[in-house]
Amino acid sequence: MKKNKIIIYLIFLIYPFFSYSHVNHYDKLKLIEMDILRNGKKIGYNNYLFKNQNNLLIVNNEINFVTKLFGIDILNVKGSSTETYKNGRLIKFKSDTIQNKKKKYNELMLDEDKKTFKIDGSSFNGNLPSTVLVGNWWNHSILQSEMIISPLSGSLKFQEVYFLSKEILKINSNSINTSKFKIIMKKNIDDKKKEEFKVWLDDKSKIILKVSYSKFGDWEYIVKNIEKFN
User: Fold this and answer.
1) How many structural domains comprise the chain?
2) Are 75 and 101 in contact (CB under 8 A)?
């Protein structure tokens, strides 16, 4: 855990913007649409719809993809979630997902007095500190959190974040200045099994534009469209 703290602290020094844990700077966003690709072929989408309502920021997510091997579905995911923020702070979250015909869910509520999240999920039931982040690719705060709650099932994962380089990312006909990071995610701190992600963050908008990882193929989540309120 001490190593993780050092890594996160260095990111704060290089990128002061990350020291703000709130999400208020997303209040002008209307829509983020991401294509999901496997081995270079589009297989689905992951879209986020933003709306401000009664001093709340509400983020609705829809995800849908199917990957096949020899014509047979090996991973079929369809799900939706809703995140609700008040004054930049997550106060509740709810998701329902069908993965290979198996139901997964996560319902989270903030207990402000105890400063904890109460979680009822398909993989975890209990309380976690309110500083833990629900993992989603729209929120750049994933690059500053040591612990992540699975949006699908409520399970807890630990992560280390490394800054890799500055990189010009080409999306369609646009060349965008980005910062590239690596996330190493584990179920337990000392777990030898790990998942590794590459993340490209737009230096200007602070929106995650691309995510890649390898697991039964090469996967990419790439932003294809961003809309903002006037």
Assistant:
1) 1
2) no
Domain that holds residue 15: 2-228
Predicted TM-score (pTM) of this structure: 0.85
Q: Are 131 and 141 in contact (CB under 8 A)?
A: no
Q: 221 CB contacts (<8 Å, ≥6 apart)?
A: 34, 35, 36, 37, 46, 137, 210, 211, 212
Cα 205 to Cα 138: distance, rounded to the nearest angstrom: 12
Residue 95 tokens read as: 């998701």
Convert the pLDDT of each residue in 98-157 to its tens digit.
Answer: 999 999 999 999 998 889 999 999 999 999 999 899 999 998 989 988 899 999 999 999
The β-bridge partners of 23 are none
| Beta carbons of 138 and 32 less than 8 angstroms apart | yes
What's 223's domain CATH number? 2.50.20
Whole-angstrom Cα distance, residue 104 to residue 133? 19
